[in-house]
Each structure stands twice: as structure tokens, then as C-alpha cells.
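**Reference record**
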Amino acid sequence: MDRGPTIFLGVFLTFASAWLALVLAPYLQFSDLQPTAAEGGDEAYPQPLAGLAAQGRQVYMANGCLYCHSQQVRPKGFGADQDRGWGPRRTVARDYVYDKPILLGTMRTGPDLANIGVRRTDTDWHHKHLYYPAVTSPGSTMPPFPFLYERRQIAGEPSFAALKFTEQEVERLPPHLVAPEGHEIVPTEEARALVAYLLAQKRIHDLREAEN
């Protein structure tokens, strides 16, 4: 007896049921999610990224940041995310209404970034961290991104945006990344956009579904 059609049907039903459960069901459940009114009558949450932060999202993806950093705070009982200070609550589907694609991430070689804009509000810190991570985080295994910065000769007054390293921080820099006398290191448009994107990561608004 030829069991080919039976086997084919079984395989098809297996994949079809998986697709229904993992793709179609979540789509039907979350596709109509909308921003919700925030507490106190403020503007709705979330808000779509705009301007420099929206450009920074593209820089974030282009440089593979999502391969080492997640953007999801797990609920209590599934890890120590909230104990680490990565967020006051778990993240939920509504947090990502405007994210296309959603950058949840799959690894945590580095810390979760869902609320990095709350934990680290210093623009200078982010730029120095991107230029050479071990400057701000000794022992960091994060790769440096000096190509996002321009080394140029100072003409007149130093640029307000130039990276300002302390003597101790300069000692942590490899010699080839230290600006020679009379030169400065200035963020490019891509670097400024990436930092703007990181500072915009603030998933802290109270949401009813996050309490479940």
C-alpha cells in the first residue's frame, strides 16, 4: 500500500498547525493593537520614533547591535531582568506597536537595551562607549565603533560635540585611537543618530497588560 499521500498529509498538517499557532494566531491577536492613553492625561504611549532617533534605528540594525543586545524585559520568574534594573516591568506587545521590524534580539552578550534611555541619560557617555567601550566599561567585550567618528584638526575653537576624555580614560584607549595634539574626535551624523535612538529607548509607562 502506498503510504506517500498519508505521510505527505501528516507532514503538511504538522507544519500547517505550527504556522497557525506561531504566526497566524499571534498576528490576529496583536495586529490591531493601538497606542493607549498614558496615566495623567499625557500623550498616548507609545509614540513613533521621529527625526534623528528614527535614523538611528537604521544605524543600530546596520551595525548588528541586535545580535548582542536584546530589547525585552522578561517577567519575574523568567530571569532577573527587573532585579538588574533593566526595567520596572516586563515588556509587552504594545511596547512595540511602531517597531517594524521588532528588535527583540536573541542574545545578551551585552545588557538588555529596552530602557537604556532611562538608565544612561548622558549623551557623552554613549559616544565614548561607542568609540571604545572599555573606556567607560573596563573589561567590556563589545567591539569599538571608531568609524562612526571623525578625527579632524581643530580650527579655531574646539567643537562643542567633540569627545572629552579624562586622563584616566585616555590611558585606556589604544594609541591609534588617541587624537594627536591639535586634533579632536567628533561624532558623525550616524553616531549622533545612533545615540539619539538609544536615548529614546524608554519602556517604563504603566500598562495594564504588563501586570498580568
Notes: The chain has one domain: 47-211.
